[in-house]
Design brief:
Helix content is 81%, strand content 0%. The chain is mainly α. The protein has one domain. Helix 3 (24-47) runs antiparallel to helix 4 and helix 4 runs antiparallel to helix 5. The longest helix has 24 residues, at 24-47. The two termini are 28 Å apart. The model has no long low-confidence stretch (mean pLDDT 87).
């Protein structure tokens, strides 16, 4: 998802948010979001092999993923199906991360 947002912001915006026309600001934020998703993903993958950073990385990833779910629910904007799917998927991963951190 992160690479799609970074490299194909118009396609990602259309499928994820239902936005057909990108202005410069919206493109910037979509691409920035893509970078965020990529960085968090790389850190999670790296933390699989580095126990010393695993707890803070998974805690930060859980917060980021819960935030997208909460923002999707509370925002007054129209919620395209793809955005709902992303929020549900991120919520599931956040639950996994929290369960791991809780020792379950």
């Amino acid at each position: 998802m992160g690479l799609a947002a970074l490299l194909l912001p118009h396609l990602f915006s259309r499928l994820g948010f239902g936005v057909e026309t990108l202005n410069d600001w919206f493109r910037f934020f979509v691409q920035h979001w893509g970078v965020l998703i990529c960085v968090v993903g790389v850190l999670i993958a790296y933390s699989a092999y580095s126990p010393a950073i695993r707890t803070p990385v998974l805690a930060a990833a859980a917060v980021e993923k819960l935030a997208i779910g909460i923002l999707t629910v509370v925002t007054p904007m129209k919620r395209p199906t793809m955005l709902i799917a992303m929020a549900v998927g991120d919520g599931i991963f956040a639950i996994f991360y929290i369960a791991y951190l809780a020792g379950l």
